[in-house]
UniProtKB/TrEMBL annotation, chain A:
It comes from Thioclava sediminum. The keyword Transferase does not apply. This is Na+/H+ antiporter subunit G. Residues 117-138 are annotated as: Disordered. PANTHER family: ANTIPORTER SUBUNIT MNHG2-RELATED. The chain crosses the membrane at residues 6-31, 43-61, 67-88.
UniProtKB/TrEMBL annotation, chain B:
It is found in: Cell membrane. This is Na+/H+ antiporter subunit E. InterPro entries: Cation_antiport_E. The lineage of its organism: Bacteria, Pseudomonadati, Pseudomonadota, Alphaproteobacteria, Rhodobacterales. Keywords: Cell membrane, Membrane, Transmembrane, Transmembrane helix. It is a multi-pass membrane protein. It comes from Thioclava sediminum. Coiled coil: none annotated. It comes from the Bacteria. Its main location: membrane. Belongs to the CPA3 antiporters (TC 2.A.63) subunit E family.
Length: 138, 163
């Protein structure tokens, strides 16, 4: 049984290492900033995920106590990685991609970076504020 | 009255659990502090988050999370193959416009995050009116296919959960 856990933990560490390496290699190999942005989100998901599972299994089996810190790390990565990626691509679009080179949004108007004073959630928040907090005047 | 003290009950529960897991000690001491954190943070941040999200079908969240985890694993392997074995000259990066049927800010946020975390696609920008997403695909010979998959696989499920 001991051997089984050793193999499982090692396998997870190797898988995590491989995906981390592929993510970093993609950063070097891919041709432009937008495609390069894809590489680190890969390493962050499966690479880090596999290593965290290995850590959880190691603590549970070898040390005999359950840690939930790994779960926290996963949650924080899932919350922060998309926001970072979103801001990097926003900056990149602002610098290198004028509105003519991008497809149009479905509705009226343009993408938020190309619009002065864009408030993307104005409509919905206003509606919800009326529905939820009827007595507040602001 | 309860709304004033507890503007976001789900956030309060989440914060209590997160604090307990971070402290990694399940004693009365840390529980008291966890509840304190869970009460104060939603109260301070309430002006920035006036609406309270509604969950029409909370059980669907489990199904959604399982699908996303499965997709992350499958798509990771696909992207690793593209990075390692496909020459850059054969790569077809594409911009895809995804028109949105969901309107709740929370649902749009979750959809945008999901698109970024599933490898191969990346949410790059939101339309000024908030009703479309601009998605960048690493390798998409057919842009319409990417759009349809996002709409049917993720957006339809989020619509059931949130609206």
């Amino acid at each position: 049984m001991e051997l089984f856990w050793d193999i499982l933990i090692s396998a997870l560490l190797v898988i995590g290492g491989i995906f981390g390496l592929v993510g970093s290699f993609g950063l070097v190999k891919l041709p432009d900033p937008m495609t390069r942005l894809h590489a680190p989100t890969k390493a962050a998901t499966l690479g880090v995920g596999a290593i965290l599972i290995a850590s959880m299994v190691w603590f549970a089996v070898k040390q005999g106590h359950l840690t939930l810190h790994e779960l926290m790390v996963t949650i924080f990565i899932f919350l922060t990685a998309p926001i970072t990626a979103h801001f990097i691509s926003k900056a990149n679009i602002f610098r290198d991609w004028p509105a003519e080179k991008l497809p149009k949004p479905a509705g009226e108007g343009d993408w938020a970076v190309h619009t002065a004073d864009a408030d993307t959630s104005k409509g919905e928040l206003a509606v919800d504020r009326e529905k939820n907090i009827p007595h507040e005047n602001d | 009255m309860i709304r004033k003290i507890l503007p976001h009950p789900y956030l309060t529960v989440t914060l209590v659990m997160v604090w307990l897991m971070l402290a990694n000690s399940y004693t009365l001491n840390s529980l008291v502090f966890a509840i304190l954190v869970g009460l104060v943070i939603p109260w301070i941040t309430a002006p920035y988050w006036p609406a309270r999200p509604r969950f029409a079908k909370p059980l669907k969240i489990i199904e959604y999370i399982s699908i996303v985890i499965w997709d992350i694993i499958v798509a990771n392997i696909t992207v690793a193959k593209i990075v390692l074995f496909m020459p850059n000259s054969k790569l077809h990066p594409a911009w895809v416009t995804v028109p949105l049927d969901i309107v709740t800010p929370e649902a749009v946020t979750v959809l945008a995050g999901t698109i970024t975390m599933t490898p191969g696609t990346l949410t790059a920008e939101l339309a000024a009116d908030g009703h479309s997403l601009l998605v960048h695909a690493l390798h998409a010979p057919d842009a319409d296919e990417v759009r349809d998959e996002i709409k049917s696989r993720y957006e339809a499920r989020l619509k059931e959960i949130f609206e």
